[in-house]
Amino acid sequence: MELTAWIDTLLVEVPQLWECLKSNTYPVSFLTNALGLRPESCARLPRLLAYFLGLYFLCGLVSAALRFWLKQHSLSSTVHQINTAILVCCSTLFVPLLVLLAKACVYVVTHEVAPLQGEGDYIRFFGEALGKVFYMVLAFAGVLFTVWMPVDSFLRYLRVYRLRGLPHAVFDVGFGLCLMSVALLAAYYGDRRLYLLLLPAVVLLGLIQRKNYLPEERVISSPEELAEKLRAEKGQRK
């Protein structure tokens, strides 16, 4: 089964990935064997990562401008940003895992459950199928929920600020991708000085996060409602 083979591969590749990070070596083996990238894709990846970093810092500058000129607040606390960065990094493995879990469920139902024997056999078939794939379905739901959390954080910017929230969403939720991009580029070029690119990213995040943010429990349906609530709170503080 593909899932079992992938897990066995992961057990071998993860320690090697850690060694690559420590030695600042480009992890070609992990990218090809664990993530399923082709060798030509691995060769093109650094250029794509450089493009992403350019877009990421552009979104950071736009977000800073929106923060100070239009008072567009961050929607994430510092703790939430850290958690999101970790989840985004983990999602590089979780997304392939979702695909493999889905394939594993189909394989089990197809090969380990007796086929339907007519219309009166539904209860037997679905009961047996559920018994076979129950734990895989639970694992799929748990992994899907974990992957969904950063996606939901991204979509929240669009719900609150509409298109104006797009650069802020990329800059906030994309910090985990920024971390991975810098690490891979530093390894590819063999230059640890590229880690200094994280400094302006952290500074920009700190400037945008400064003073306050809009908590999740404060449900906002439109930018106009947000502006009205912020004006009301400012008046109460006075």
Brief description of this entry?
With 238 residues, this protein is an all-alpha fold.
Molecular structure report:
By secondary structure, the chain is mainly alpha-helical. The chain is 77% helix and 0% strand. The chain has nine helices and no strands. The protein has helices spanning 2-23, 28-34, 39-69, 78-111, 122-161, 166-173, 175-189, 198-209, 223-237. The termini are far apart. The model has no long low-confidence stretch (mean pLDDT 87).
List the helices and strands and how they pair.
Blueprint: H1 2-23, H2 28-34, H3 39-69, H4 78-111, H5 122-161, H6 166-173, H7 175-189, H8 198-209, H9 223-237
Helix pairs in contact: 1-2, 3-6, 3-7, 3-8, 4-5, 4-7, 5-6
Q: How far is the N terminus from the C terminus?
A: 65 Å
Radius of gyration: 23 Å
- Oligomeric state: single chain
**Beta-strand level of the residues, as a percent range?**
under 5%
Q: What structural class should be given to the helix and strand makeup? A: mainly alpha
- Kindly state the percentage of residues in helix: over 70%
**How would a textbook summarize the main sheet?**
none
Given the structure, what is the number of helices? 9
Number of strands: 0
Order of secondary-structure elements: HHHHHHHHH
Approximate shape = flat
> What is the mean predicted local confidence, pLDDT?
87
Unreliable stretches: none
